[in-house]
Design brief:
Number of domains of chain B: 2
Structural class of chain A: mainly alpha
Radius of gyration of chain B: 22 Å
Mean pLDDT of chain A: 87
Distance between the termini of chain A: 67 Å
Low-confidence stretches of chain B: 1-10, 12-26
Helix content of chain B: 40-55%
Shape of chain B: globular
Number of strands of chain A: 4
Oligomer: heterodimer
Strand order of the largest sheet of chain B: 2-1-3-14-6
Number of helices of chain A: 16
């Protein structure tokens, strides 16, 4: 049967679309739109990271016409972990006593149990195993370091930073949650309280540091008479390592409680009211309501703000710098202040090496928190 | 009354400034630097920055050059200048800084050689500058790179009225210093009814503490004259810290803390000066500033109640061959006074002005004219008598006549006492020179400063402190080349 013209036409392959400049531009539009963001990210995040990685392997030296950068390999890290700067980063160690061994053994048992649950829980996978291995290794190393330096030795900037991060963020979260729960109630003047509690967040950290420096001055500060009445006039908080650290912690807590408070308050106020009312009608107590309704409802938000604060807290520098200048000795020096002081004295390699140590510890800690705690809160909510 | 006296002093300063400007403007003729701006960096005042800021507008009126005084904290000054000049930013045209740092700035070519300019500058009256400051503060490697604006020595000050009342003589040794501090600690020294302190020394980390420890160590370590040096062995470059002499100095340093304010380890010189001039301290160690701050009628309650002495010394000194402390005799302490080895420490050396070699020629000329103007006797002789300037005497004419000081409010006896202590230090054949080798800032402001801060904080004991300094200094020696450092160290001592 002869083919009709129509059939011939229908069998003809469709002509390929013309590939002009307009179409090409159209195809590239997505990439073009993303490009500025990528360039900015490369310029301001990746490039400095690479440069500081390079700097951590060099020694800066003045030379005719300017300066020279000499490659020294891992010498800057070696100096920090095993050499003359070990005391500064890791601290000075003391032998374990019964208490330290007990805590360390308990922690090892806890980690072993964690892995046991992972192996027998039916959700074993290789990436999960590697992640847990890294987290557990860092946890054990940091715990050993803390026990070896805090009880008898002298903590270095790494343990001091961990103190600011763990104790500080816990305090800020606890107080912030408490205030949010209080202001979430129908109490008189709660709007005024909200504003008052929020104010510290608006003050510059340097201003807060100077304010606490004045308040803690027991000889000339505005509270000097009160200190003297308590017989503390001849005590200097800045001369004792732990009291100096506590003042830094107090200033940091005062500054960051409002952040926790304001976000948690929003979460508390967005809780499903019908569940709360039903629980009250059924005669549930306050603790029961908090455990079974409030906490599951605000847990994802809580985990997120704790994560944000963890990241931020690792970078603390302004308060110890202004309040105590890192002293007495190096007792209040955080990792960032340690890095800054090294940079200020032209030890660019040492400064970058401290920076990279901070990056490693904070990244592993925050990723671990996100994976092993943050994710769980979402499951709880579900 | 006090305010009126102060106003009169300020008025006299301004008048003297205006009159002198007419004279010094002849060197830089009127309008010569129209449109030229000079950015000068120094440390956050009020000292040092104050006279520069006060005189800059007058200088602009006379010459047309606008001088911006940029201030940064002392602990940042070295690195701010270095990063600006080393990276080629060159936003700073000139700076007033420690002459010690010249070794790091001259080598890479950051500082302009001022030899020819200074030689042709009659108004500077270079011969009037005391030889030590002319040679140490102004020159490096035989050439002039800076102009001296200040003369610095560490000295000891005591409350002459309180010492007299209690029958305590001025301390000759550090042991005497401790005994006096102990005896007077806890007594009411200013009549306000509250107990005061035996000794106030700046021991804050990142401030001036590392000079204080060497002011004490100097007389234990050096006894054979300036060329012996007090920081390193002149043959091997081994640090002179792992020995009983430095250990004895550390003992004195920590002992004084027991008789100081409770927060002494957090006090810089600004704080200790405030405490001393408000009558709260029986003794202090400081630069020449105490003498002039004590006569400030607005802030001082100890005018004419201050005794000035060369730094106390020691009756035992380090025998370099045996490494032991030995008693002073004619051989071990050839420069001893009353059997006591005194070794005044030329701490810091005095603020000096240097110019960025990469600045425009016209800017360099204007910067030089400004520093010369500040240093000329007409300005300098007035500035060194005012406490808040932070400038201390460094010209021979400033030591020669007490009239200058009497006009500033000092009694003749106090002026003689004050100037006498400076001159005794300046003329001592056993003066200890401050460290002036490459990276001296890292040796002193980092390693030494950290170690003594940790000692006072209880993080290190004496042996640990010595070990930390020795290890840190040896490490820096190796990084910079032991032979290279030794060569420079020896040349600074004239060897």
């Amino acid at each position: 049967m002869p083919q009709t013209q129509t059939a011939a036409i229908s069998r003809t392959e469709p002509a390929p679309p013309k590939f002009g400049l307009a179409e090409w531009i159209d195809q590239q539009t997505g990439k073009l739109f993303v490009l500025p963001a990528v360039i900015i990210l490369l310029a301001f995040a990746i490039f400095p990271l690479l440069i500081s990685a390079y700097l951590s392997l060099i020694k800066f030296k003045l030379a005719t016409g300017g300066f020279s950068l000499n490659y020294v390999g891992l010498r800057n890290f070696k100096k920090l972990f095993y050499g003359s700067q070990q005391y500064h980063l890791l601290g000075t160690f003391d032998a374990f006593g019964i208490f330290e061994w007990t805590v360390f053994a308990a922690a090892l048992a806890l980690v072993a149990y964690w892995f046991f649950r992972f192996f027998t829980g039916g959700y074993f996978n290789i990436p999960g195993f590697i992640g847990r291995l890294i987290t557990a290794s860092l946890f054990i190393a940091l715990l050993w370091l803390t026990l070896a330096t805090v009880f008898g030795g002298h903590p270095g900037s790494l343990v001091v930073t961990l103190f600011y991060v763990t104790v500080g963020v816990s305090l800020q979260f606890g107080i912030g949650l408490g205030l949010a729960l209080l202001c979430g109630q129908a109490i008189r003047g709660r709007n005024a309280f909200r504003i008052i509690f929020f104010i510290p967040l608006m003050v510059t950290p340097v201003g807060i540091a100077y304010m606490f420096r004045m308040l803690a001055d027991m000889q000339r500060g505005p509270l000097a008479n009160i200190w003297q009445w308590f017989g503390l006039g001849e005590f200097s908080w800045a001369a004792d390592p732990w009291s100096a650290r506590m003042v830094v912690l107090t200033g940091d807590t005062w500054q960051w409680v409002p952040f926790m408070f304001i976000v948690l308050l929003a979460a508390v106020e967005n809780m499903p009211r019908d569940q709360l009312e039903a629980a009250k009608i059924d005669g549930a107590g306050s603790w029961q309501i908090f455990r079974d309704i409030t906490w599951p409802s605000i847990a994802p938000v809580a985990a997120t703000i704790v994560l944000i604060r963890l990241i931020e807290a690792f970078k603390i520098i302004d308060l110890p710098n202004v309040l105590t200048n890192g002293g007495p000795g190096i007792a209040t020096e955080s990792l960032t202040l340690h890095s800054f002081i090294a940079w200020r004295t032209q030890d660019l390699g040492g400064s970058a090496a401290v920076g990279y140590t901070l990056l490693f510890v904070s990244t592993v800690t925050c990723v671990s928190f996100f994976n092993f705690i943050g994710q769980k809160t979402r499951k709880t909510e579900a | 009354m006090a305010k009126r006296t102060n106003e009169r002093k300020l008025g006299a300063l301004l008048l003297a400034g205006a009159a002198s400007l007419a004279i010094s403007a002849s060197a830089a003729s009127a309008g010569e630097f129209d449109g030229v701006t000079v950015n000068v960096m120094t440390f956050t005042g009020p000292q040092i920055a104050e006279p520069l800021q006060r005189r800059a507008p007058d200088f602009e009126k006379a010459t047309g050059a606008k001088v911006n005084i940029i201030t940064v904290p002392f602990s940042d000054l070295y690195s701010k200048l270095l990063t600006d000049w080393a990276t080629g930013t060159n936003s700073i045209d000139a700076a007033v800084f420690a002459p010690q740092w010249a070794v790091d700035y001259v080598g890479p070519g950051f500082l302009e050689n001022l030899t020819e300019r200074a030689a042709a500058d009659g108004d500077l009256m270079a011969d009037d500058i005391a030889p030590f400051f002319r040679e140490f503060s102004q020159k490096y490697g035989g050439d002039t790179y800076m102009l001296t604006l200040d003369g610095d020595f560490h000295m000891a000050y005591y409350r002459s009225d309180i010492f007299k009342e209690n029958g305590i003589p001025a301390p000759e040794t550090w042991d005497d210093y401790i005994v006096a501090a102990k005896a007077l600690h806890g007594k009411d020294l200013n009549g306000d009814g509250s107990p005061d302190y035996g000794s106030c020394i700046s021991k804050k980390r990142g401030a001036q503490a590392y000079w204080a420890i060497y002011s004490i160590a100097a007389s234990f370590l050096q006894s054979q004259g300036t060329s012996q040096g007090a920081f390193f062995d002149t043959e091997t470059m081994a640090p002179l810290v792992n020995n009983p002499a430095f250990g004895a100095a550390l003992d004195v340093y920590t002992d004084t803390t027991a008789f100081g304010p409770p927060d002494e380890i957090n006090l810089d010189v600004g704080d200790t000066r405030g405490l001393f001039t408000s009558g709260r301290c029986a003794l202090t160690v400081d630069w020449g500033d105490i003498g002039t701050l004590a006569i400030d009628p607005e802030n001082s309650s100890v005018a004419d109640k201050v005794g000035s002495i060369m730094l106390p010394g020691s009756k035992k000194v380090l025998d370099r061959s045996s490494g032991e402390l030995v008693d002073c005799d004619a051989n071990s302490c050839p420069h001893a006074i009353n059997g006591v080895n005194r070794a005044p420490f030329a701490a810091f050396g005095g603020w000096s002005g240097g110019i960025n070699a990469k600045a425009d020629d016209k800017v360099k000329d204007a910067a030089y004219a400004f520093f010369s103007h500040m240093s000329q006797p007409a300005q300098s002789n007035a500035d060194v008598t005012v406490g808040k300037t932070g400038f201390n005497p460094y010209r021979l004419s400033q030591f020669a006549d007490t009239k200058l000081w009497e006009e500033a409010g000092m009694s003749k006896a106090a002026a003689e006492d004050y100037l006498g202590a400076i001159q005794d230090s300046l003329n001592s054949p056993n003066m200890v020179l401050d460290l002036r080798i490459p990276q001296n800032q890292a040796y002193q402001q980092v390693v030494l400063d950290n170690a003594i801060a940790r000692l006072l904080a209880g993080e290190l004991d004496k042996a640990g402190t010595i070990a930390a300094i020795e290890e840190g200094w040896n490490e820096l020696n190796e990084e910079n080349g032991v032979e290279d450092q030794l060569k420079v160290y020896r040349s600074t001592l004239g060897l």
